[in-house]
Amino acid sequence: MKIYLLHFFGQKWMILLLLLINIPGTIYGYMWYGGQLNQTPAHFIIFVPDSPTASLFFVFVLMTFLLRRNWPMMEAFAAVTLIKYGIWAVVMNVAGSWVGDPLNWKNYMLIFSHAGMALQAILYAPYYRMKPWHLLVAAGWTLHNDIIDYVFMMHPWVSPRLLPEITLIGYFTFWLSVFSILLVYMIGVRKSRETLELN
Question: What's the total number of domains in the chain?
Answer without folding.
Answer: 1
